[in-house]
Predict the structure.
Amino acid sequence: MRRLALWAIPVAFLGFFFVYPVVTIIGRGLWPGGHLDLSPVADVVTNPSLRSVLWFTVWQAAVSTVLTLLVALPTAFVLARLRFRGRSLVRALMTVPFVLPTVVVASSFRALGFDTSIVAILLAHVFFNVAVVVRTVGGLWSHLDPRQEDAARVLGANRLRVFTSITIPALRPAILAAASIVYLFCFTSFGVILILGGSGRATLETEIFRQATQLNLPTAAALSIAQLLATVAMLVVAGRLQGRRDVAMDLQPAIETARPIRGRGDRALLIGVLGSAAVLLGTPIAVLIVRSFDTGTGFGFGFYRALSSLRADSVLFVPPVEAIGNSLLYATAATVLALLVGGPAAFAVARSRRGGTLDVVLALPLGVSAVMVGFGFLIAFDPPVDLRSSWVLVPIAHALVGIPFVVRIAVPVIRSIDPRLREAAAVLGASPRTIWREVDLPVAARGLMVGAGFAFAISLGEFGATAFIARPDRPTLPVVVFRLLGQPGAQNFGAAMAASTILVVLTVAAMLGIERLRASELGAF
Amino acid sequence: MSFRRMSPRRVLTFVVVVCLTVGALATVVGAREPVTITLITHDSFNVSKSVLRAFTRSTGIKVRVLRAGDAGQVLNQAILTKDHPLADVLYGVDNTYLSRGLNNAIFEPYKAKALDTVPAEYLLDARHRATPIDRSYVCVNDDKRWFADHNLARPTSLGDLTLPEYRGLLVVENPATSSTGLPFLLATIAEFGEAEAGGGGWRDYWSRLRANDVLVVDGWEQAWYEHFTAGAENGDRPLVVSYASSPPATVNKAGTNARAGTLLKSCFEQVEFAGVLRGTEHPSAARDLIDFMLSKRFQEDVPGQMYVFPVRDDVELPAEFARFVEVPSDPLALASDLIDENRDRWIREWTETVLR
Amino acid sequence: MLEVRGLSVRYDDSLAVDGLDLSVADREVVCVLGPSGSGKTTLLRAIAGLEPIAAGVVLRDGADLAGVPPHRRGLGFMFQEHALFPHRDVIGNVAFGLRMHRLPRDQVAARAREVLALVGLDGFERRSVRELSGGERQRVALARALAPEPSLLMLDEPLGALDRALRDDLARELRHLFERLGIAVLLVTHDHDEAFALGDRVAVVHDGHIEQIGTPVDVWRQPATEFVARFLGWNVTDALGAGRTAVRPDALRVTAHGQLAGRVVERTFHRDHFLIRVALSGRDETLDVAIHDTEPPTIGETVRLAVDPEGLVPLPR
């Protein structure tokens, strides 16, 4: 029965705010005038150009994911295993790309000389998603007992063998969880494809967008079904590979598994890995920041001042403080929602035999076109319960994307809790629900907090469906950036860079704050 | 906070209560007393605070602005929600999409009071379901300084753009994704027409543009801020598809000269409309807002806030506009019905011609 | 008073505990001694309510504990690898059980400090349990189990992973502690020195049932079964002509006129004595002989052995 309670909240939330709207909009497309018409589905299946779109969608997502892993795993290792000053700052900085508007990043990429091409797409996908892998995998990595690796080395395994036969299997659940999220992000990538891919490159997502905005709902619905099926297939395969980890891992506190920098090898590793990460992630951000200060007549705060003076007489104008406030409000609401739904869901997934199904369902919002979700909201949340133009839809839409992060990061942590801890608590007089509160929750909290950090960043960065929701005028920082870039003039452009820089600073501050919260609540663990 | 403590039934109750509360709150916020009307519009809608305040002062009606993306999305949302409209008034459907709005019957007819001040050419709906508010011109802008520096004559017509001396100089937006790309495609269709038996027509023109190394980008932001030499830091294209009203953004510090100019023969005319949404609960307040949008006060505010032209011809333009904006005397145009009928096909054919 | 009657615990297809009877009186220390895999740990877990029982009853002061969940049994349990809460500091671990019993806050702190002092860890309150040495962790685990004053304290291999010197010290301390606190203790170990040093009574278990139970002296002097005899290091032989017999290694002497002849095949040094293993001539059998004061024979030497009847116990067939 308790298990049922854990399931009820995520299932109800997802059912009402995701499944219901998506089914409604697909239904509108395939049941025009009350009878089922599957001819658009047949068209999609037989259309050769759509087949090539599907192929491109799949392979660019797969290649992007592999590249992201290649870049992110060494970084995760360094951040997890080497102790050096500024580690948490580096970790916080890693999250910045995640929140930057695509337009802004694309602009930086171009300033760096990357023209629209497939290379630019792949590079941008890596840029945006490295944080997902570094934080998801790094979280587990920093708690793995390094003595296992030592043991393997003593038994005669070389470093590579240790990595492939001890480290990778131990990290596998986290790697697969992160990889499938990255894959879905690239699979449904929209802005990157349009802006950096150059015209003529199309993915399922851009096709759905094009069809939906032409109000060609039948085709959009058919394409969405294809997208949904591909997403489910990918998630199921990833889930199979991941397997179910029943074995509790003896997790160690991060402080003990990390070693201080020793000798030239460590230093070279640190500099090499962080240096490459800095070049890849840092340069575009640096370009952005420099541009925000470079007023053309020297460096200064001109564009920042412009943020609060530019067109202050219009209804469009938002004082920057207010935009920051709105961003923080939405992000906080989205994070709380993601924890309230994702927390119970994580326990349900970790503890239940059928948890895998829930895990897949919870990840679906990552793999469904944002425009369809947005349109679904519009027609599903009709009167009498009219949510369509309410501000709450914004954090709800953000939470839908944040929940899979919370779940996927927390589940391996929950599964790794030593069952003897629970038994010890029971014998000491703790009832099952007290055990949950006193043992499971505090230990799971570190996973939940990393997930919460992502939910927060997702919301700060204005993800997906909200762009397609009519919303009262409560603009967030990314919205301010879009509006400024929508008008010509050096002042507008500079002010957009300034607003983006504020977003960067806000993100770093929020991530550091969350990290501190995590550390203080749980002590060294 | 323990979910395990709750019985499943209590959890369900909890969820239902939360949902209902959220819903109720939203409804309460949505229907504030006594008369607040909702205006659904696109992201570039803008008006001076003082002007909107004047409307509220004189009528007692408050206006809540709901932003719904670009012009196409605003219309899509209005159509998807036409049984239970999100707003009372829609502002921002233009002549390229007007007939889609009219065919989907989202508007209620209303003949605005000041309609007689609007030139007849902008009154595109005889039944007055949509009231014209502003007009704009999507044109090719050029970087005058660049052409001077390179001792090259500025192109003047669409046809010029296919000449070898202008090779690799033009950046345009994709009509499938951009609200400037589509009008420019329509301009070329208006100019060159559909293909005839012996060839020619707009597709032929675009083939020649393509052969002349035209650059296609996804949106106006990329075109202007990444490529246009007079708009970007390291721009590489001195010709861009933008608006007749864009040049003031390139005025020098002294305020004496605009770096960008307009190819007046390349302009496509866009007229933007507002309308009362069918099913509104405040029809009379909604009509008041339409009237206000045609009032001199609002019309005078339009150029400064949205970089477009008022539809009324008895309104004075701001000094910067009067000085640096050239208004095409004979812009290109296409009938709204024609556009609606062929838009999808044209975009598809354009994609095949230019991108594949 | 704890009583276990006919207790069976099933693991998959086999019985880890098989119809076991055992009682622990108030203030009594009972040691369950057995090799690994004999069901000792399962027995403790079943008593604690952590394993479902296939048959039998567990009674506390005559009351059946069936259906009483672990957290209401009021038993203390010290786990083999301590299972300290990694997310709590030392005092947080020790105070846990007290908080579970809803003691007022100030009493919780006072009692936790008191117990910490009792195990010799005053001043360790705010230390992270991860920073502790093995012995310190063992003391924290003990303090945690003792703090709520359980009616019965169960310890699973309490000295398991510690080094020898530390084990001897801690064993002595535990003995004193049990006497001082006067609580009932059920302790599980595979080490007979430990069991004999700590227990008022020792129960030797094998394959889920008790082979023999009694005072340490009785068990050591009178092994009741061949299993117990072998487990305690006795020789079991038929060579003496008195049927199956258990012979203590120090009841055998090397002498020129001994009744048994054999060849030395192994010789090991044990602090205060040597142990030699002698392969008996004409039999496929070896005997271990403890040699205390004389110089032991070398490997390969042929010796004769005499038997001291005091160190000889006939075994049931």
